[in-house]
Every structure is written in C-alpha cells, then in structure tokens.
Amino acid sequence: MAKGLIASFGEMLIDFVPTVSGVSLAEAPGFIKAPGGAPANVAIAVARLGGRAAFVGKLGDDEFGRMLAGILRDNGVDDGGVLFDTGARTALAFVTLRADGEREFMFYRNPSADMLLTEAELNLDVIKSAAVFHYGSISLITEPCRSAHLKAMVVARQAGALLSYDPNLRLPLWPSPESAREQIMSIWDRADIIKVSDVELEFLTGQESVEDDVVLTLWRPEFKLLLVTLGEKGCKYYTKDFRGSLDGFAVNTVDTTGAGDAFVGAMLRKIVDDQTILQEEEKLREVLRFANACGAITTTKKGAIPALPNEAEAVELLKRD
C-alpha cells in the first residue's frame, strides 16, 4: 500500500460567489468563479498541508473542466482518477453569502459530468493504492455515479483503506429530504470515520440538539471515530473508548465555504500516517485542535480552495491561541 495516499471521490465544480456579501443571487452585482466541490476541497486541503492526495471523479470536457483539472495538478493532487465527459458540462453552483458568512446554493446539474461517472470508468489503481478513501453523499443521488461510488468503496475496503465519510448535505440536490436521509444512511455503517456538522446531525436525527445522547444514536460499533463540527464553537469527538469536545478559534469570518473540508483534510492528513491517533485521546485532541485551526483559517477568506491553509499558517494560529 502506498504510504499515506488519501484518495477523495466525488464532485468538483465551479462555485460562483457574489462579489458582495449579504445579498440574494438576483441582487448580486457580479460573481467571482471559485473552484469547489467538497471531495476536491479535501484533496487539495491534504496536499496543501504536505500530504499525498488523489482525486477520483468526472469533469465536463469543457473549459471549466480543464481548468479544474489544472487546479488539482497545480495544488499537487494526483489527477490520474479524473475523467472528462464529452456529452455533459462541468457542474456549476451559484452561492449566496449571507451577511453572517453562511451560504445558500443554486445548482446547475442537469445532468453534469460528475453524475455520469460509471463503474467501468473508475481508476481502480488509484483507489487500491489509497490508505484513506474519502467520499461524500452527493455522488449517491443518481445513477450511474451511485453504483460507481459503491464499487469504489468496496475496492478501497478490500485494499485495506480506512473509509472516511462526510455526508456534506446539499438538500437542493436531492429529490426530497426523505430520500436524502435514506441514501445518506444507506452507507452509514460502512465507514471507519464519519464527520457531520451540527446542521447535518439535526437533519439525520430529527432532533435540535448536539448532546451526547442524540449524537450516539448515529454511533455504530464498527466506527473508529465519529465527529460533529460546531462551526466557530469547535467540535465533538466519539470513539469506542472515549469522547470529548474542543473549542474552536475566534477569527474574523468572511465566508464559511470549505471550512468543514479543511477540517477533514487536516485530520486525515495526520491520521493517515499514524493510526494510533484513533486510540490515544491526547494525540487525537492535538490533531483535532490542528483541524479546528485549519477550518477557522479557511473562513477568513472568500472561496474554499484559495482559503485552505498550509501547515505554517495553522501552526501560527495554534501558537497565537
């Protein structure tokens, strides 16, 4: 097994972000194009922190798709698992930034290239060489991508990878909230590491609470780590043997896009080369503090990928705190 490769599976797209915050899409005077897509963000977050990352997914054979593949390469991400579809466009998302930096989305995917990835097109060599295989739930929404996703998970598991899952709920993309919940949970038991946000926790449990008893309804005996991110309030962690929480970092938040992906990338970057972190609470707390710092830094700039920190920036914030 290639030492330390983190392969990220799913969608990469262009976010169009308004030039001003706090307005609706219709009121926005203009938009800046920002590369995005949670699994791609995670791959770049890993690489920017000095880790080895690969991305597996499909882009449109268009200017935006070629641009995104170039961004992966420029950021040191292996793009051997990237395919181009001549018949479908690269996905686009228009993102509204509310005054508080939170987001609303409008997607253009009918269908977009990422949805058309088939099992037969998967680069199995990349998947088999991964020590960690990371994925979301957007790739579960429609066929053929859903079958490709499920096959990739099986191949990664058989090759001995840790499976990492961040559902990354985007309700507007699903036919209904019920189907979102059902499909997100359909692969729940198969992961080793799962990270959900407080909003996703509420959606999946139906309860407006981040208390342990609510979180633990999502725990499975097979898990190595379950994480709940709480935005600026930090995160909570659960393993077989211990549980706890960590405060976040106070920063000047401009745009929360990509913060969760920075957190996941930072955590996986550390765990991939030392899985004892999952058994030792002190080590885990240190890693999650680092991940919190990376998430916090990402909120201080617009867009996800440009805002993802390097190791030195994260260490600087940890020292300052």
TrEMBL record:
PROSITE patterns attached to this UniProt entry: PFKB_KINASES_1 (PS00583), PFKB_KINASES_2 (PS00584)
InterPro entries given in the database record: Carboh/pur_kinase_PfkB_CS, PfkB_Carbo_kinase, PfkB_dom, Ribo/fructo_kinase, Ribokinase-like
EC number(s) recorded for this UniProt protein: 2.7.1.4
GO molecular function: ATP binding; fructokinase activity
Keywords: ATP-binding, Carbohydrate metabolism, Kinase, Nucleotide-binding, Transferase
Metabolic or biological pathway, per its Swiss-Prot or TrEMBL entry: Glycan biosynthesis; starch biosynthesis
Cross-referenced SUPFAM superfamilies: Ribokinase-like
Catalytic activity from the UniProt record: D-fructose + ATP = D-fructose 6-phosphate + ADP + H(+)
Gene Ontology CC entries for this record: cytosol
Domain Carbohydrate kinase PfkB: 5-309
Superkingdom of origin: Eukaryota
Any Pfam family: PfkB
Family to which this protein belongs: Belongs to the carbohydrate kinase PfkB family.
GO biological process: fructose metabolic process
Name this protein carries in UniProt: fructokinase
